[in-house]
Design goal:
- The protein has 557 residues and is an alpha+beta fold.
- It has 3 domains: 16-157, Muramoyl-pentapeptide Carboxypeptidase, domain 2, CATH 3.30.1380; 200-376, Chitosanase, subunit A, domain 1 (Up-down Bundle), CATH 1.20.141.10; 389-556, no CATH class.
- It is built from 24 helices and 7 strands.
- The chain has helices at 16-31, 45-53, 93-105, 131-134, 145-157, 179-187, 204-216, 237-244, 250-254, 258-271, 280-293, 295-308, 326-334, 337-353, 358-376, 388-395, 400-408, 416-426, 435-452, 459-465, 483-489, 493-506, 515-522, 524-556; strands at 36-40, 73-80, 83-85, 108-112, 118-126, 231-232, 235-236.
- Strands 1, 2, 3, 4 and 5 form a 5-stranded antiparallel sheet that branches. Strands 6-7 form a two-stranded antiparallel ribbon.
- α11 runs parallel beside α14 and α14 (337-353) runs antiparallel to α15.
- The protein is globular and about 80 Å long.
- Pfam families: Glyco_hydro_108 (PF05838), VanY (PF02557).
């Protein structure tokens, strides 16, 4: 099976000798506001042959003749207003010069000919390497298994003219069959040995996850609202054309075989997202999203979900760029898979709801997401670091019953220490808070602070403002919704609002299950707003009472 001819900008598989260098160059360019991005990193020999055949020429070397084939070079290209630009004239000229300066500062070099003339401005490579040496298997020291395995795969899959270079020593190599077993097989006359015509058919982990995808990707369709056009078994006409490297017809899509479709799924979605290296729950969520919304979108959701959980890698949040680099893969492998997968699916579902075709395909998408959540629950939970927001609750051992007791005891007016304790827990900043949630936390903080600072003198208000029946008369604000509701809520609005805000903020963070918890989690924004309004109503009521009190005091004086 040949390699792909598609451009690859992922720097995570490059030789370690340049990974850090490329990251450093890219970070410095961004800090200076120079809009360069990595256009191409590892390049397959098939793509090298295709580029060499282009007219006019874009490269003069053939397969295995470019440093790109060995993961020791990248192409930096300007990306302005979302479009790639090779323009090196005018104001852009200084951008290219600066990129070359940073390359040299980091032990890399642009490409020059023997006369010292710059040949390709985008191309920079490790200083001191040559394709001639590497075609003989002489590779730079310091290679790791990620780089070696990828280069080894390119070498194994090369079926073009000429001889591929030797594989790096670190590249995994399947041992040969035992000679005694082989001899026994050969003497069995007419034995029908299985033929591994596809990798997909012999990958049990992929098939396990793909069984879910096949249930939701049906047969041939050509829906007018589907931007992908004609589709069969989930493979669009554009994907099939790219896979085969030539234009295809609607009939070609209609006649697509299951074996070829499975191979495309495995190569273009499962493998390209490196799902085989992820915990099962994350592998399944990423694979499903890659099929439904594209591999780059899937990786972006990984990065967004990780950041929303308040986690960091080496003290920093992940850059949301859709590139599955070393940091992103490390984050996936070391984070609690069940927590990260849940956050990922929430992001994906939110994205689907925002698409302009949701009215047409939305019901099917949501049914698929619901089925995915059920399927995920059958997979191993995995291990890893749980988000700080969840760990704070469990580490402090705050039981649900404790929360309810503390919150409800606010009605008795004797919970200063308890409310201080729960306020410290609830009001802790959370990077996943929405703007509404943050605003209501701030409001809750002010209310708690006000309650904790009150002294016994506040009780005098009740004695002065009672009516002939011994009960406080309704003020205009308290009576705004009628006598019945006004009397029922009189003296209870602020406390009810505070309790509601506490419970709505705390319950979803306890890590427990139940219908009430699910309802609160799903409607937290609405509930927070409702209880904020209730608390605000109570505060205005108190202001109204205070005005009434001043008037009564003046009358008595």
């Amino acid at each position: 099976m040949a390699n792909f001819s598609k451009r690859d900008s992922d720097i995570s598989r490059l030789h370690p000798a340049i990974r850090k260098k490329v990251e450093a160059i890219q970070n410095q360019l961004r800090s200076e506001g120079i809009p360069f991005e990595v256009y191409e990193a590892f390049r397959t020999p098939e793509r090298q042959a295709m580029l060499q055949a282009k007219r006019p020429k874009v490269t003069w070397v053939g397969p295995w003749g470019s440093i790109h084939q060995y993961g020791l070079a990248v192409d930096f290209v300007l990306k302005i207003d979302g479009k790639w630009s090779w323009d090196d004239s005018g104001t852009e000229a200084k951008f290219w010069n600066r990129m070359h300066e940073l390359a040299k500062e980091n032990g890399m070099t642009p490409l020059y000919n023997k006369k010292g003339k710059l040949i390709e401005k985008p191309h920079i490579q490790l200083i001191g390497v040559s394709a001639t040496a590497m075609r003989k298997g002489i590779y730079p020291k310091g290679g790791d298994e990620i780089w070696a395995e990828h280069l080894g795969d390119l070498i194994d899959n090369w079926d073009g003219p000429g001889t591929a270079p030797p594989k790096p020593d670190l590249a995994p190599e399947r041992p040969p069959l035992d000679l005694a077993i082989l001899a026994d097989l050969e003497i069995e006359d007419g034995i029908d040995l299985p033929s591994p015509f596809t990798d997909a058919a012999f990958d049990p982990r992929f098939q396990k996850f793909h069984s879910f995808i096949k249930r939701w990707e049906g047969g041939f369709v050509n829906h007018p609202a589907d931007r992908g056009g004609a589709t069969n078994m989930g493979i669009t006409i554009g994907t099939l054309a790219d896979w085969r490297g030539k234009d295809v017809t609607v009939e070609d899509v209609r006649n697509l075989t299951r074996a070829e479709a499975d191979e495309i799924f495995r190569a273009r979605y499962y493998a390209i997202c490196r799902c085989g290296e992820m915990p099962e729950r994350m592998a399944m969520t990423v694979y499903n999203c890659a099929v439904l919304s594209g591999p780059k979108t899937a990786i972006k959701f990984v990065q967004e979900a990780f950041n929303l959980l308040g986690l960091t890698v080496d003290g920093s949040r992940l850059t949301v760029d859709g590139i599955l680099g070393r940091l992103t893969m490390g984050a996936v492998q070391k984070t609690d898979a069940s927590v990260l997968a849940e956050a990922f699916m929430d992001q994906h579902e939110k994205y689907l709801r925002g698409l302009d075709t949701f009215s047409v395909f939305g019901a099917g998408w949501l049914n698929r997401m619901a089925a995915l959540r059920e399927f995920i629950d059958t997979l191993p939970k995995g291990a890893g670091v749980r988000p700080t927001a969840i760990m704070n609750i469990s580490e402090n051992k705050v039981d649900l019953q404790d929360i309810l007791s503390i919150a409800l005891s606010a009605r008795e007016g004797d919970t200063k220490a308890s409310l201080s304790k729960i306020a410290e827990l609830v009001l802790e900043p959370d990077s996943a808070d929405s703007s509404t949630s943050s605003r209501n936390k701030a409001l809750l903080g002010l209310l708690l602070k006000n309650r904790l600072s009150r002294d016994d003198k506040s009780k005098d208000v009740a004695t002065i403002t009672t009516g002939p029946d011994g009960k406080p008369p309704l003020t205009p604000i308290n009576a705004a919704l009628g006598e019945t509701i006004g009397k029922a809520m009189n003296g209870k609005k602020s406390v009810s609002g505070i309790v509601g805000l506490l419970l709505t903020t705390v319950l979803p963070r306890l890590g427990i299950s139940g219908d009430i918890i699910q309802f609160v989690s799903a409607n937290s924004e609405v509930l927070l707003t409702l209880f904020s309004l209730l608390t605000g109503w109570g505060m205005f009521g108190k202001l109204d009472k205070a005005i009434r009190l001043v008037g009564m005091v003046n009358e008595r004086s």
